[in-house]
Amino acid sequence: MLRFAPSPTGDMHIGNLRVALFNFIMSKKLNEELLIRIEDTDKERNIEGKDKEILEILNLFSIDYARVVYQSGNLKYHQKLAMQLMSQKKAFACFCSDEKLEELREDAKKEGKPFRYDGFCASLSDQAVLEVNAPFTVRIKKPDENIKFTDLLKGDFDYSPFDVDSFIILRHDKTPTYNYACAVDDMLYDISMIIRGEDHVSNTPKQIHIRNSLGYDKEIKHVHLPIILNAATGKKMSKRDNESSVKWLIEQGFLPVAIANYLVLLGNKTPSEIFTLEEAIEWFEISNISTSSAKFDIDKLRFINRKHLSMLDDLRLSKLLGFADEQIGKLGKLFLEEASTLKEIKEKLDLIFTKKQSCEGFEEETNKIMECLKNAPFIEDFEELKKYITEQTSLKGKNLFKPLRYVLTGRENGPNLSDIYPFIKNYLGEIVK
Ligand SMILES: Nc1ncnc2c1ncn2[C@@H]1O[C@H](COP(=O)(O)OP(=O)(O)OP(=O)(O)O)[C@@H](O)[C@H]1O
User: Fold this and answer.
1) 6 CA closest ligand 1 atom index
2) Alpha carbon nearest to ligand 1 atom 17, residue
3) Percent of all residues in the chain with a pLDDT value above 70, rounded to a whole number
4) Which residue out of 4, 19, 263 has the highest number of ligand 1 atoms within 8 Å of its CB and is therefore the one to mutate?
5) Pick from 162, 180, 188, 359: most CB atoms within 10 A?
6) What is the helix (H) or strand (E) element at residue 429, kind and residue range?
7) 76-170 maps to which CATH number?
8) Is the pLDDT of residue 235 over 90?
9) What is the CATH number of domain 1-69+181-311?
10) Is the pLDDT of residue 242 over 80?
11) 227 in ligand 1 pocket by Cβ < 6 Å?
12) Which of 8-22, 302-316, 355-369, 412-426 shows the lowest per-residue confidence on average (mean pLDDT)?
């Protein structure tokens, strides 16, 4: 089983989505199930409703999963297994106060060394532990040997016991810390491959050490994907960045298929530039992913979105634009030279259908054309339409074309009227109302 494990701490961004997509693709390739695990143990950072939003986004992208679990639901296992570790002397009660730990941190800083726990409580006798009447955390003992693992993308890693340290697994309130809950859950759900962002590389030896200590010997494969950076700030994308939020991109009119295409293409060797997820499942290889971080390039996404919009079925596009007429889908595609999203196409359509004022400098001509069209019979062809208006109004040349374009499209430039007309001829009454 594979897993995608988001925290419900903000809007899902495209860095998170890329991880979800790669897990989905690999679950299909390996013919294994995908688990969604909502990592909600850090109560203070959780935001109400974000879990539901994440699941809605996964559905929108057709990322199908076998089940959803909430990490907080496994508290009893986290605690039970911590007791097991304590009884086996692989973990110990730590009574060190926050103040003392802060002092150790300060000392390490002064010496230019990384902070490590000094091991004081590791050697307390059982009797001493029983006699101390103070709150305690549970720490796992650091490993005796180096923790090694191979990342399928980044190669071999080797961490000394000093790197791993004796770290807290249960807090004072006996809730699990991030690494502990994560390691236990990956074991409980029989996860075979962990695909996540490289911000988790340093967590991996700790999580392996926890499972080793619990006697779990099934090897889990690891893939740490490069981080996607915010193009403007050059920093790791965060759930607080609006313009990388998946919700925002969808609201702007980017198609899920295009966003997925962009995210799989980004920093990857692919046989073509434009593809669907189903196609990507055919040829996807972890080893083709670049190990360097990538910047989110919205212009590239706009280009890919245009391509997917142009490939959409006309009726489907029209429905996405709020109509149910394939002619409107065809019309929408005409605007793809200048529009890249559903929202931008919709803006052009709105200009056609909203009530017009008057074309500047051609007020009289505009009125004449409007009146003429209001009384016109149904005209099939644009050449005939021009002829008809000229016959009725004597307008021609610039005096005909400028106001006519304005009357039909609500603007002074854009695709050829002869290209637009076939798709709007059925709506003429509405357009000149
Ligand atoms: N900028 C990023 N690029 C690529 N992957 C990322 C990025 N940020 C997070 N991830 C990955 O997204 C997955 C879900 O993580 P999580 O929900 O904790 O997101 P987060 O953005 O790190 O959240 P928070 O900012 O609240 O810690 C993890 O596998 C994480 O490694």
Assistant:
1) 17
2) 6
3) 100
4) 19
5) 180
6) helix 428-431
7) 3.90.800.10
8) no
9) 3.40.50.620
10) no
11) yes
12) 355-369
